[in-house]
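User: Can you predict the 3D structure for this chain?
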Amino acid sequence: MPAPHLLVQTAYAELLERCAADAFGEPFGEIGGFVSKAVRGKRYWYFQEPNAQGARTQKYVGPETPELLERIAHHKQARSSEKERRALVSTLVRSFRMPRPIPQIGDIVAALAQVGIFRLRAVLVGTVAYQTYPAMLGTMLPAAMLQTGDVDIAQFANISVAVEECTPPILDTLREIDKTFRAVPRASGGGRATSYMAANRFRVDFLTPNEGPDTSEPKMLPALQTDAEPLRFLDFLIHDPEQAVVLHNAGILVNVPAPSRFAVHKLIVSQRRRIGSAKRDKDIRQAQALIDILLQKQPGDFARAWREAHDRGKAWRRLLLQGLDQLPFTTRDEVLKALQESRSIIPGLDLKFADSRPAWVQTGVGHDVSFVGQTRAGAVDCRIQDLALADHFGGTDDTDRAACLTAFNRHRFQIERIMRLKFLYWPVDQSRAVKIRTDDVPRLLHELEAQSARASPRAE
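Assistant: Here is the predicted structure, written as structure tokens:
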């Protein structure tokens, strides 16, 4: 029998395919046809149909991809499968306990999808997007990280202009769901609204990347007929989004950030929030939960997203590494292992030693002398192989406890120095632990000598 996560992913894949087929067919009627335009070397598709006056109108379909061409070819045969979709949603929610939004949030997302914002390349971000990842990845995420009363929608301003189509005014759409929705004027920006709130405090926020100088001035998204708040780093998050299904009613087809981009983005933006704030803590916890899964299921995607963010400049690297340092010890080390990086990339990280009593520990093939190191994230189990003590530090017999402990105590300062060097500068071997084997010692001593020479002032 397949593992449960495979069953989840199979059911979700079928739901996604059905939702995508149905969503593609809904805006495009039986009368009309698809036409393409070449814009700056790329091809985009539109659906052209006559209006009541006999003139031709066009609806934006999307950039050309093999999948889009296949859907266009089979458009006439597409039929709604709402009953089957509801059954799949029920299976995912009831049998596999995949998360669904609270009904009011689901209704809001459904209304926005119905008027076409996701077809016009808007992206669902924030916690409602995060709720789609368990089914997408075939695994559970902590329930506390899935709760929200907000819907966050993002779109590139240049895309909003380029699609050459618009939805009804956002406030009109929201008031069809709840008549108490109102625009929330910004204190700055001349009273323009980027957010909408209902009497029950449910909120819809519109965002757009701030790719130029920092500004709080709202930007117009003409395709959505609303202003949006410009945010730094958002361009990374919503670049190349993925289709997903919100598990509400018969399923809602949306665009969401790739999970790897979501996790990396959370590490970055967490460091721009006030220390101790609930949003900062939530960012870190969401990033950790997602990273733990991605390192098992999509390590290559995570590594590529990390490298892209890391290579965007000093400010990006600083925030990214500060965010990494906030993760639990084990998750942080697993990230470094996946990236094939050493702990030395973490700013300010160090390994220090107190005068702890060494212990004689039996292993599968011999013994280690174990002692405790300390970092700001907690204790580290530091060990040196008995054979290493016998071969390099005067322990005449690697099976003799007293001889090994005597050798360790006699050379402890030097052993601690090479232990620190391996912990910080060598590839991560295991989390919360570092061990020196006999074959490591010559290289470590050589590196220690070279490090000391670089630190010493040159002779006149």
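The chain has a mean pLDDT of 90. The two ends are 75 Å apart (CA to CA).
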